[in-house]
Amino acid sequence: MARQGVLITGGSTGIGRALVRRFALGGHRVWFTYRSNREAAEALADELAGTRAFEFDQGDWESHRRLHDQLPGPVDILINNAAVGSQTVRRYVTGSTEQCDAAFLQVNSVGPLWLARAVLPGMLERGHGKIVNVASVGGGVATFPDFHIADGMSKAALVYLTKHLAAELAHEPVDVFAVCPGAVQTPMLQASLLDGLDGAELDDLFRRLPGRRLISPDEVAELIWWLCRDEASLLHGAVLDASLGLGVHPGLLTGGAMGHASSTTARSVA
Fold this sequence. Notes:
alpha/beta, Rossmann fold, 7 strands, 7-stranded parallel sheet, 10 helices
């Protein structure tokens, strides 16, 4: 894979952090965003040569404009990883349930649309590009009725965005994919689900999860790394269930009392 410019949103923790490491160690120029965790973002950028961190408020139009003005080069690979979950949405809004509903859609769906729209013309002009949307098994693949309805709606919208762009670009040299992780060991999963469970409930959760384990961020990052290779063009438009099988058997998780957590939203905007 030739050295390329890679933009990764939500890169300071979780899957995003693993993606920054994978692409930087793979020899690419990596630019990643964070919203509030400046210390972690700057430490990661200092550690990995060829990376830069940018403060970014996804879904806010002025922040989008500033980000694209600041980027030091063309984006060849866009990875829409940043998102909010049932707990982290409160970093955006502290008001009503209706305001939280709107934030889910604005951050998780509209923000990736704006990012893709901004980088696509350059990709088409240069004759190559990859867009990977990191959605979730909840909403993107299966229905988890105990979880936040607006969260699932936003992931379904992100999958639709993937399919729509892939259809528009069927004869163009830009590939688009969606990856739908399951229960990944991230700070967002910790806040959205694990922190609310006692020891016995945690044991029960692990017994019911596919493979009886959480997915590691590195596993998801490795899958996305492969999707950005030329060989993956055969999968243009694919929506990949990266949940260890939870997407085909959601009852493994919904069979217990999980409350209203968004446990399958396994990413971070920190």
